[in-house]
Amino acid sequence: MPKTLLIAPSILSADFARLGEEVRAIDAAGCDWVHVDVMDGHFVPNITIGPQVVAAIRPHTKKPLDVHLMIAPADPYLEAFAKAGSDILTVHAEAGPHLDRSLQLIKSLGKQAGVSLTPATPESAIAHVLDRLDLILVMTVNPGFGGQSYIGAMSEKITRIRAMIGGRPIRLEVDGGITPETAALAVKAGADTLVAGTAVFKGGHYRENIAMLRAATDTSSG
Ligand code: DX5
Ligand code: ZN
């Protein structure tokens, strides 16, 4: 049975001067998770937020904070992000030489563990850590910025990862360039969790935008 689709708006597209309010607004608009993009200006060519900001938004929602760490190294900061109130901590397979250790550290902090793959990284990079994972995040753009276009070749990678997951209780999340059109492609390929920044925050119509993503991926309607 397919898992329920989850929508995780990326607050990278929110108004940073009103972050608490924006988090409450996407919560009220029916999001499932809140996706937090952490960038270090080293692993990716942009700098965003740190643990203090995660702690600041924590009181504004009871929904899971899905924290996407685009930082290298990640290990020295995992405890701070865990203490800040993250629920899911996702590290990049490319960010360090010891992915297995990073995942063990996340679990030891009592958090759900995710791994992300940039577009050029093959799924084989995670073949030997599957049993440590709660989440696999397939980047469908090169990480660093919102508003980019979905890379079509990623649909095949999603399908392969869906097969690798088999019966394991691992969420398969996609991130980057998700619109109602590409959401349908990603879900058809096997994704069950959608990150969307631009598509959710566009025009300020958060509830309608989230509903459009769900409707576009509703397989029951064919
Ligand atoms: C990119 C981030 C994404 C980004 C998605 O590095 O990981 O979460 O905010 O933005 P959109 O949905 O606008 O492509
Ligand atoms: Zn992200």
Task: Report the uncertain regions.
Answer: none
Instruction: State the helicity in percent bands.
Output: 25-40%
Strands of the largest sheet, in order across it? 1-8-7-6-5-4-3-2
Tell the overall outline. Answer: globular
Structural description of this entry:
There is one protein chain. Helices cover 33% and strands 18% of the residues. It has 222 residues and is α/β, with parallel strands linked by helices. It has an eight-stranded parallel beta sheet. α2 (51-57) runs parallel beside α3 (75-83) and α6 (180-189) packs across α8 (206-216). The model has no long low-confidence stretch (mean pLDDT 97). Bound molecules: D-xylitol-5-phosphate (DX5) and zinc ion. Residues 10, 35, 37, 68, 175, 195 line the site of zinc ion.
Secondary-structure map with pairings?
Elements: E1 6-9, H1 19-28, E2 34-39, H2 51-57, E3 65-70, H3 75-83, E4 88-92, H4 99-108, E5 112-117, E6 135-139, H5 154-165, E7 171-175, H6 180-189, E8 193-196, H7 198-201, H8 206-216
Parallel strand pairs: 1-8, 2-3, 3-4, 4-5, 5-6, 6-7, 7-8
Helix pairs in contact: 2-3, 6-8
